[in-house]
Amino acid sequence: MERVAIIGASMTQFGQRDAWIRDLLAEAGIDCLEDAGVDPDEIEHLYVSNMASGEFEGQGGIMNGLAHDLGALPAYTERVDQTSSSGGAGIYAAWRSIASGASEMTLLVGGEKMTHRTTAEATDVIASITHPCEYKHGVTLPSFAGLTARHYLDRFDAPRESLAKVAVKNHRNGVDNPNAQFRREVDVETVLGSPVVADPLRLYDFCPITDGSAALLFCPESVAREYADEYAVIAGIDGATDTHVVHERPDPTVMSGVVESGRGAYEMSGYEPDDVDVAELHDMFTILEFLQMEGLGFAEHGEAWELVEAGYTDRDGELPINTSGGLKSKGHPLGASGVAQGVEIYEQLVGEAGPRQVEADVGLACNVGGFGNCVITTIMEAAR
Amino acid sequence: MERVAIIGASMTQFGQRDAWIRDLLAEAGIDCLEDAGVDPDEIEHLYVSNMASGEFEGQGGIMNGLAHDLGALPAYTERVDQTSSSGGAGIYAAWRSIASGASEMTLLVGGEKMTHRTTAEATDVIASITHPCEYKHGVTLPSFAGLTARHYLDRFDAPRESLAKVAVKNHRNGVDNPNAQFRREVDVETVLGSPVVADPLRLYDFCPITDGSAALLFCPESVAREYADEYAVIAGIDGATDTHVVHERPDPTVMSGVVESGRGAYEMSGYEPDDVDVAELHDMFTILEFLQMEGLGFAEHGEAWELVEAGYTDRDGELPINTSGGLKSKGHPLGASGVAQGVEIYEQLVGEAGPRQVEADVGLACNVGGFGNCVITTIMEAAR
User: Deepest in the core among A101, A179, B174, B197, taking most CB within 10 A?
Assistant: First the structure.
């Protein structure tokens, strides 16, 4: 089967935007087509990754609206919802659209408009969608993160500072991302001195509420060569679901969706963890970066914190993680985040990452839905 | 490429159900697996077609909940949203999951829970999602249907009774569908004497508000032979989008999404309209059955009404249409409807349609989103 290539990428400014969801989607979609030099009428399939435009804005049918706004009719359109991993699910949907032969040019646009709601409202929307059972009892995603972080620190004798250093690293990376929501460095003291949200985690252990959109353009590799000298190909991709109720999981420090989707993506690609040169992990909370590093085989179980402490995941380290700034500093517009992870990996592989550029032939993105309810892992490689 | 087979099908009782969306999805999913003799842990991909569980019930993440409820972990899950054509979009998504090689056993479950809301509330939800621009001015889907019906009757000199005869036919078929919401015959006088909803259309020209769920099980044809002697294969499938704003369409009696998706499905399958032995069309309003008959090449433009008058589309006619009872009598739980169309075609092809059985080797289903905003056409053939 022919490989699936990515020939264009874009993202809007992430942050507080004076725009509604359709504006954001159109902005990223138009930029992505321009980036690749592809006309809207060449699009055969158009996927929109979005978690909750209905809940946040009372907006539906946004995929049909986007087809109109881009001038992409009569392209087939579909909205892909996999809660906070909708973006990764969109990459998987776009991959299948090409790999099945259904489309030779597929545009994926992910987006979310959130900041017109308060943080409390947005947290409620997210928890009610991703964890309806526990939410009835008042549990939200930050609650899970706090409990998991406490367990991890105690069990593996990890210093609280190691979590803070994830935030420090990702904020440092975000400074060089012109589209990041926060472009300022923070130090360990700032993180540890910020207000408690869910003990032991504090404000700077959490990603913000964000508006934004991101896009990727997919085609068969034979078509890619007509448009670009340098492009990326999807070497491996897989998704996996974990229990819908968190307490049913045997080990709170293991997200089996991460492990299973990673296993599938590695197997399909033929790569192993050591082959990965750069990774975007779903750092909605600092503790999640540890769990994904371990679930994906970048660190032994209970040892990710040591690698972070040692600078192994810094931009100039052995395995740079979240060179984009991650969800932590770049922001987390739910449906856009998985797509934006793909944008960063694509830009790293084709050498368009500017001041964030690292040497990379193989990159990985891991997008987490809910508190690990469903996870999609994508491995890309450079084609030059 | 290997063909994609369907080896199992099920639908719940449609109507007013004392259950929430997750109950309905689980009921259809479990029945479908039992129908095929497949264990839940064999499922690799699980798609849920649903339009508005958030808007109707405040429920999200239902695909992850269903994976739990079925015992299908760690199957990859995704919610497919293409408004009222989410079911057809789910068939297309399931097809791509198999055709791409990503999955060897894909379960699709479509469902919607609506009857706890009033008809007015449900109509508002649907219009606000599918036609946000016109909805601001008070236009709903029934409004479009009334305007289109008036135009059609005047332009093609069609008698008002011809529309009523669509309802009469589909109600007659529904009597023999144990899962239909309405299992009673109506006559032309009843239709024409029912209350006006959107002139010239009356209550019996419209489908009801419905709760329900339906499921289909997909695998490569080589796998299908291990499970079933008789099964169906997807011979052709395609989707297409029309303008998001209805007034931009050049001819109100032509739904280009129907035409384009039909063209794609015919081309992929090698079949022509004359080859189709049985069809399920999206008769949300009686007028839509005419538009789809014409858009899909079963009748010349402006002449579908003559075929209906002549009994051509009756169960014992040349081309039986909506043997299931259609959306009109079976009911229209939005996300379930396109899947239930597929269930009827599958049952007709494998000879499991009971008193509704017709002779059929090739069947077609056409699922319409919004007022034709996005349409998916599927052509199946029997494999015996």
Answer: B174
Q: At what angle do helices A86-99 and B86-99 cross, to 10 degrees?
A: 60
In this prediction, residues B315-327 reach a mean pLDDT of 98
Q: Is the pLDDT of residue A384 over 90?
A: no
Region A330-339: mean pLDDT is 98
Average pLDDT over residues A185-194: 98
Q: Chain A residue closest to B259 (CA)? A: A74
* pLDDT tens by residue, B310-320: 999 999 999 99
Q: What is the pLDDT of residue B250?
A: 95
* Distance separating alpha carbons of residues A76 and A64, to the nearest angstrom: 9
In a domain, B98, yes or no: yes
Best residue of A20, A77, A261 to probe chain B, by most B CBs closer than 10 Å: A77
Cα angle B308, B311, B312; round to 5: 80
Q: Look up residue B246 and give its DSSP letter.
A: G
As a whole number of angstroms, the distance between CA B284 and CA B172 comes to 16
User: DSSP 3-state assignment of A381?
Assistant: strand
Best of A96, A104, A121, A258 to substitute, by most chain B Cβ atoms within 10 angstroms, is A96
pLDDT at B202 over 90: yes
Contact assessment for residue A172 and residue A316, using Cβ atoms and an 8 Å cutoff: no
CA distance A266 to chain B (A): 14
pLDDT at A284 exceeding the cut of 90:
yes
Instruction: Choose among B73, B82, B241: nearest Cβ to A241.
Output: B73
Name every chain B residue with its beta carbon within 8 A of the beta carbon of A85. Answer: none
What integer best gives the mean pLDDT of chain B? Answer: 97
- Is residue A180 domain-resident? no
For residue B134, tell me if it sits in a domain.
no
* Partner-chain contact B82 A63, CB within 8 Å: yes
The answer to whether the Cα torsion of A276, A279, A283, A286 is positive or negative is positive
Say which CATH number the domain at A79 has. Answer: 3.40.47.10
pTM score of the predicted model = 0.98
The secondary element (H helix, E strand) that includes residue A46 is strand A45-49
| Model pLDDT, residue A278 | 98
Enclosing domain of residue B88: 4-117+210-227
Quote ipTM for the complex: 0.97
Q: For residue A1, is pLDDT > 90?
A: no
B53, B76, B255, B261, best to mutate vs chain A, most A CBs in 10 Å:
B76
| Closest-CA distance of chain A to residue B51, Å | 9
Nearest to A99 among B46, B101, B242 (CB): B101
Is position B34 within any domain?
Answer: yes
Is the confidence at residue A280, as pLDDT, over 90? yes
Kindly determine whether residue B60 and residue A130, on different chains, have CB atoms separated by under 8 Å.
yes
Token reading at A33: 């087509």
A68: nearest Cα among B136, B239, B242: B242
Residue B129's contacts (CB-CB under 8 Å, 6 or more residues apart) are A54, A59, A60, A61, B51, B52, B55, B83, B370
pLDDT, residue A78, reads 98
Domains identified in chain A, total number: 1
CA distance B206 to B217: 30
- Over residues A369-384, mean pLDDT: 96
pLDDT confidence of B1, banded at 50, 70, 90? confident
CB B170 within 8 A of CB B322: yes
Between chains, do B78 and A77 touch, taking CB under 8 Å as contact? no
Q: Which residues of A69-97 are buried (b: 16+ CB within 10 A; e: fewer)?
A: bbebbbbbbbbbbbbbbbbbbbbbbbbbb
Please give the mean pLDDT across all residues of chain A. Answer: 97
Q: Is the dihedral of CA A346, A352, A353, A357 positive or negative?
A: positive
The arithmetic mean of pLDDT across residues A356-384, rounded, is 97
Contact (CB, 8 A) for A277 and A358: yes
